[in-house]
């Protein structure tokens, strides 16, 4: 088991964080809610559950002001780099649900397209190009791009919005235009925080856990490399964790293989709240008693064969949560 040194959970926010998992699926880190103006509001408590299948957060907020406060509450999604979908799978958080005082809220969506640091939303909308992939990927976008005049496509390429793939499928060279922009979504709604009252907010979603077909840290040569040392530091995969991984490898025999999952959760948002989190609880669930788990935290306590708990009082987070779960193959 690792020596946990953890991230923190301050005003939970969502930021764009992409951690590439070797040779497979990448993961982007989501976090919690952001109050854009919150000088009067405390986070009394946060109860955070993290697993490969689901992240759940239970908040209690309190308005310390003598008046009701109407606040924009936002959940910014991780940036989606559509160019990354060109050659690999990317795990993005999905299936978001938020309950306020026991009732599900209907949020508004603010969507922007960025390329080379510039907002190009209006341009793509004027050309009737879908801004975002659907459940089947970028097919609708590429089909719409294929219908544009050559001069327009050249302009979009110059702006960094598209690129072209050329390949021969036996019937001559074919060209396929692919999206290269970054999609930035933010869900938001207006929320009244009554004077002197607590407000309960519950939030859940699938984390879009990244995975690898093999675990690079199982190989001593990789551990000794700069990338290996950086990965071990990110997940606090210390000597105890690596020794457990080695013992598991020896027990299975030569050629043993492991899969892994990586879960990122953005905890750091600094000054979004009036004060520190009054009562913070984190539970990390590794899913199967045979799995290995490593993440950075202090004061970790095992509460079940698969779950590990961390508690803090009057806490301001200073870094984010990165969880590595190693799963032996049968």
Write the layout of secondary structure elements.
Layout: E1 18-19, E2 26-28, E3 30-31, E4 34-35, E5 41-50, E6 55-63, E7 69-76, E8 80-81, E9 90-91, E10 94-100, E11 103-104, E12 108-115, E13 118-119, H1 121-126, H2 139-146, H3 150-158, E14 162-168, E15 173-179, E16 182-193, E17 198-206, E18 210-212, H4 220-224, H5 226-234, H6 239-252, E19 258-266, E20 277-285, E21 292-294, E22 301-302, E23 307-315, E24 321-328
Parallel strand pairs: 2-9, 3-19, 5-20
Antiparallel strand pairs: 1-2, 4-7, 5-6, 6-17, 7-16, 8-16, 10-11, 10-17, 12-13, 12-16, 14-15, 18-19, 19-24, 20-23, 21-24, 22-23
In brief:
The protein has helices at residues 121-126, 139-146, 150-158, 220-224, 226-234, 239-252; strands at residues 18-19, 26-28, 30-31, 34-35, 41-50, 55-63, 69-76, 80-81, 90-91, 94-100, 103-104, 108-115, 118-119, 162-168, 173-179, 182-193, 198-206, 210-212, 258-266, 277-285, 292-294, 301-302, 307-315, 321-328. With 330 residues, it is α+β, with helices and mostly antiparallel strands.
């Amino acid at each position: 088991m690792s020596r946990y040194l953890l991230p923190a959970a301050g005003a939970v926010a969502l930021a764009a964080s992409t951690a590439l998992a070797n040779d497979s699926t990448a993961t982007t880190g989501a976090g919690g809610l952001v109050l854009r103006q919150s000088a009067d509001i405390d986070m009394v408590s946060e109860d955070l559950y993290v697993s490969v299948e689901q992240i759940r957060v239970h908040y209690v907020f309190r308005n310390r002001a003598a008046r009701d406060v109407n606040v924009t509450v936002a959940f910014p999604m991780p940036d989606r780099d559509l160019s990354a979908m060109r050659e690999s799978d990317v795990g993005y958080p999905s299936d978001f649900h938020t309950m306020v005082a026991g009732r599900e809220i209907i949020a508004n969506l603010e969507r922007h397209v960025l390329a080379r640091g510039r907002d190009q939303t209006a341009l793509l909308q004027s050309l009737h190009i879908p801004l975002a992939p659907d459940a089947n990927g970028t097919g609708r976008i590429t089909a719409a791009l294929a219908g544009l005049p050559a001069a327009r496509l050249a302009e979009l390429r110059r702006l960094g919005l598209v690129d072209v793939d050329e390949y021969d499928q036996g019937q001559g060279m074919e060209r396929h235009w692919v999206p290269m922009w970054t999609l930035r979504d933010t869900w938001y709604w207006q929320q009244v925080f009554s004077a002197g009252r607590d407000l309960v907010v519950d939030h859940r979603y699938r984390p879009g856990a990244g995975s690898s077909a093999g675990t690079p840290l199982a190989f001593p040569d990789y551990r000794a490399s700069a990338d290996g040392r950086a990965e071990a530091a990110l997940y606090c995969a210390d000597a105890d964790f690596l020794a457990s991984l080695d013992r598991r490898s020896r027990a299975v025999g030569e050629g043993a293989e492991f899969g892994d999952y990586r879960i990122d959760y953005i905890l750091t948002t600094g000054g979004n709240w009036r004060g520190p989190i009054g009562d913070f609880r984190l539970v990390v669930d590794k899913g199967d008693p045979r799995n290995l788990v490593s993440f950075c935290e202090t004061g970790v306590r095992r509460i079940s064969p698969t779950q590990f708990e961390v508690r803090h009082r009057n806490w301001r987070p200073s870094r984010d949560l990165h969880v590595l779960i190693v799963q032996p193959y049968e």
